[in-house]
Amino acid sequence: MSSVSSALHAPPVGTDATGPVRKVFGACNLCEAICGLTFDVQATPAGDRIVAVRGNERDPLSRGHICPKAVALKDLHEDPDRLRQPVKRVGERWQPIGWDEAFDLVVEGLARVREAHGADAVAIYQGNPSIHNWGNVTHGPLFFGQLKTRHRFSATSVDQLPHHVAVHWLYHHQLRIPVPDIDRTRFLLMLGANPLASNGSLMTVPDVRHRLKALHARGGKLVVLDPRRTETAAIADEHHFIDPGTDAAWLLSVIHTLFDEALVQPGAASDLLDQLDALKEAVLAFSPEATAALTGIDAATTRRLTREFAAADGAACYGRMGVSTQAHGVTCQWAIQVINLLTGNVDREGGVLLPNPAVDLVKLGLVGPGHHGAWHSRVRRAPEFGGELPVSVMAEEMLTPGRGQIRALVTSCGNPALSTPNGGQLDRALAGLDFMVSVDFYVNETSRHADVILPPTCFVEHDHYDLIFLHLAVHNVARYTPAIVAPPPGALHDWQIYAELAKRYARRIWAQERSGAGKRIGGLLARSVMSRLPPARLLRIALLKSSYGLTMKQLRAQPEGIDLGPLRPSLLQALRHKRQRIALLPDLVRRELAQWSIPSADALQPPEDARAPSQAPGPHDALKLIGRRDVRSNNSWMHNSERLVSGKPRCVLWMHPLDAGARGLAEGQPVDITSRVGRVTAPLHITPDIRPGVVSLPHGWGHDRPGTGQRVAREHAGVNINDLTDDQRTDRLSGNAAFSAVPVQVMAQVCS
Questions:
Q1: CATH topology for 87-157+376-545?
Q2: String of b and e for 197-209 (b: at least 16 CB within 10 Å)?
Q3: 466/713 Cα distance (integer angstroms)
Q4: Which of 307, 354, 468, 674 is the most buried if burial means most Cβ atoms within 10 Å?
Q5: Where does residue 370 fall: left (phi above 0), alpha (psi -120 to 50 degrees), or beta otherwise?
Q6: pLDDT grade, residue 11 (50/70/90)?
Q7: What's the pLDDT tens digit per position in 413-432?
Q8: Of the CATH numbers 3.30.70.1450, 3.30.390.30, 2.20.25.90, 3.30.70.260, which one belongs to the domain with range 6-78?
Q9: Contact 598, 604 (CB under 8 A)
Q10: Over the stretch 50-68, which tens digit does the pLDDT of each residue have?
Q11: How would you classify the pairing of strands 273-274 and 582-583?
């Protein structure tokens, strides 16, 4: 497939200014921090031009913070590679088409596959930005629900799925995720997280550097456990190099110590806790002395940190990607919640608290509590959670013949060819589909396989209210922001795309499957409130039930955000109101712990027969591969901005000097990295900032595949870490991808 025709590119933005510069308040919704911004916008003959982007010091959440990605919103808006009208595949080229033709092609292609092979032959993949755009959140379900397929996938299962499973079991709802009260805590224990690079994740915490400085200033303590000396670890009071993939054993040894040293004090949660004795027995074998050799954290350090955490006047244990994307992800996230519970830090100021957003999707009943294992995947029998299957099974469901085989795919602002494990296998599977449509404004490594691409407006061309991440914010705020610039003529917002697809698909399918009723049902959907109202009208309705009594008029009058105050205890009250209790030892966790054994006096590990073949230890010279995040990257899709990819190449392999010396490798040398599923070649960086036996490669790169339309990204291609990660390595309880601790071999490049 050739690169996109220049006919699809918008003309260059004019530089001859004809209007005054106006100031527009907005927000960056590229990542979870949703920082408040101030845009300088100037009218030109070719349309509005963004002159400057700055942090908004008046924003009550981000307080003036801005990162390089927000500045690059200007680049995204002006990017000539960004699609601005629908395209269809014609042989080896992309042809611009109108919206009417595009919708008809999509509906016909999906309906044809459904008619021939059933509803489950159509699959959905929703990428990370899907929940960052409120039009996707409000109107995407209108269309996706019409597909009636069990093959629903999203970036959740290469990310935070273990969080949802753990809190679903403990607190009875997948969105009841308490976040560290970072502005008041006295002790922050952090595992596998690097908020200085991520701006916070499952903890919406912009301006995190200053917040951590304030923690130090009030006499608090930050302790980081991570196989790499991350940017966050570098400013911590203590950093301990834990062996990747062993976090669950260390967390269990903390729970053991709480019982062993009589430090259990659940506080306000005491009357809600069940199974305390069963939990104590379940962790009996996990003493710090038993786990030390496995984790690399000596017993004395584990016991000391446990005592300090339990004694602190407000403490929070928090873990993110490094502990979620491993073979024991759910066990890790469950253990983190249990540690907070046993020390009385759940629902405690300075501990972990539930935010109270102005639009609370849980209280409104718009997001269900979740369910686990209601059905299983066809090939591997992996469990669903919340109606989605883990993305690790997506390729095999495309490649394995039989009833229910995936033959068509809808992707929503995602790039699973780069972002999911064993990406090379998925790339081959995508090439064999009968039909594919992508809602995306780039021809990327995934959408290059599509038959039709539907580009929505970009972030600065539509209004926004964050419906998801304010449920995870470290301070309660409400912020509605208008469009920064006007969209080009003929452009459609994502909500309009999904509403129209839903209307046309329903009409087509009902005509196909309910002969005679198609016109009537299609008309009902066309007149439905949801399909006709824009997100802002739906927000106005939702605010009627807000506990703060806010109105759209107030939100529009204060686009810099409305301060709703610090986090307050609410989780335990909500449980008591519904007469729900906290079962500390869910059955699947109990079974998981029972499978661990102690083969020697000083080490604890899972038994051999509990591992899948690809989870067995690698050869004696194998290293453990982990990922790496950078503040100038945003997963796989912000590498087409020159300002974000300039400077020294960042897609390099980190290795400890001892490991490099043992292999005779030198700084900057190209090395071959080989796993069970693939091989890539990358430059080597030798550094003491990584644990011996561990290597690190960043995710989101690998822009060297033919037929993509991102020219800057292609010039800075890098390599794809997910050509090494293994689709068979998953979290044992949830099916979440296990990216951490992938066994690899590294050697000097072998020229072929």
A1: Rossmann fold (3.40.50)
A2: bbbbbbbbbbbbe
A3: 29
A4: 354
A5: left
A6: very low
A7: 999 999 999 999 999 999 99
A8: 2.20.25.90
A9: yes
A10: 999 999 999 999 999 999 9
A11: parallel
DSSP 54-79: EE-TT-TTTTT---HHHHTHHHHHH-
Cα first-last separation, the chain = 26
Best CA proximity match to 3, nearest among 716, 705, 717, 718: 705
Contact between residue 65 and residue 561 where contact means Cβ atoms under 8 Å apart: no
CA 555 to the chain's CA centroid: 28
Residue with tokens 């080896």: 92
At 226, the pLDDT band (50, 70, 90 cuts) reads: very high
Burial of 557 (0-12, 13-18, 19+ CB in 10 A): exposed
- The whole-number pLDDT of residue 563 equals 98
CA dihedral over 421, 422, 427, 429, signed as positive or negative: negative
Tell me how far apart the alpha carbons of residues 422 and 725 are, in angstroms, rounded to a whole number: 5
Distance separating alpha carbons of residues 593 and 279, to the nearest angstrom: 10
How is domain 181-354+582-588 classified at the architecture level of CATH?
Answer: 3-Layer(aba) Sandwich (3.40)
By the 8 A CB rule, do 380 and 393 touch? yes
Domain spans, the chain: 6-78, 87-157+376-545, 181-354+582-588, 608-748
Please check whether the domain covering 608-748 is classified as CATH 2.40.40.20: yes
**pLDDT (tens digit, 9 = 90+) per residue, 250-272?**
999 999 999 999 999 999 999 99
